[in-house]
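Extended Data, panel c. Modelled sequence:
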Amino acid sequence: MPPPLARPALTQGPILKSLLTLAGPIVLGNLLQTGYQLVDAFWVGRLGANAVAAVAVSFPINFLLMALGSGFSVAGSVLVAQNFGARKFDTVNHVATQVLVLETALALLLTAGAYFASPPLLHLIGVGPEIFAEANQFQRVLFLGLVFNFGFLMFQALMRGVGEVRIPLYINLGTLALNFLLDPLFVYGWGPVPAFGVAGAAVATVCTQALSVSIGVGVLLRGRSGITLSFRRFRPDWPLIRRAFTLGVPSSIDLSARALGMSVMTVLATGFGTTVLATYGIGTRILALGIIPALGVSLACSTLVAQNIGARNVARAERTANYAIGLSFGGLLLVSAAIYLAATPLVRFFLAGDEAVTRDAVEFVRIAALSLCFTGVQQSISGALRGAGHTLAAMLLTIIGTWVLQFPLAWYLSSRTELGFRGLWWSFVIANVLAATLAGLWYLRGDWKRNALADELQKQADSAVALEDKVV
């Protein structure tokens, strides 16, 4: 029998409604996360160009660290969702506690390493002396908050695993508003609070992250969301932690490959001069906003597939993936059309006054937007693979799409054809179509439906739960 406060499993009812119910708040949450960057840019921008540059150069390093943490949160979400679908609530609680232990340990290790490695990392990427001190202070403060950031990533993943996506959204909304108030307080100082300058934006972010994870842990301890934490379960269950680690590593590599891919494409764009680099930066920012709906559908698909596999309803899991693929393709087709038609005002929102960059950026956005619907297909298929526990397959699809297809195409088309720098733009289209085709063929093979993850995990976790009950 389920506990009285457990949420219903997403293994019954209309599939499309379940997908949209889960995906909507996830999309809004991702947009709110983008809002953090905009808030920091708003307040730091008033300190001058050097301050803006100090924050910007720290982005690739922090993005890579977040990718590592997000990969293990994917593992937590899948493990919880499969057992929740099987209605094994004691196992859900045990798994949730153990993946939190894993994520916290990882965050502490990365914090220590990244904090002391901050200066050499900045030297490695060529940060100039005029912004070095500010950049180092800014990212070191962010590194100190990794345990809070990773903790909230895992909280969101666990909530997503049981189908609860509204609580994280409400927490994100409240802390974003708080961050807007704390940024000027710590950046410029007021009363007894000293002015930290650029580092103040990081201090404000860490404060809101600490509050977010504190609220999240409180929600889990109260047990009113489908998961109930218990302090007696925090004793490490090494077989389960190893399984979660094995499941999470491919997802971390998957997301890290995307993060590093952004940097490599930036290097290719840099070779064509400042105008092309600015064009690439603006265009990719607009395209990143355009695929947020697909990311939401992908995460929702992962949860639904995992719960249905846990419930041994593989046919419904497959129908869910089919719905997600169709929804992402159709939805991003509409988004692509909107971006194509509104390309000029969108570009001018990020840049005003430079007609050459504006013209080239509009061209880039319109070319690349043609393939967003194929990106949606690949994202949904990857979500289905992760939900079934095949994180390695999802990782391989990303690596092939990014490193085997797009980069060689981008280099060849831009340096060996008459397209010139426009070859970078067309590499998005060709690579996305080819990657989606490969993902589709992989998906149609049906191997992802043959999965023993739920059975294997169930035996491990049930044994641990039984042992705990005997001890108590």
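The longest helix spans residues 49-85. This feature is highlighted in the accompanying rendering.
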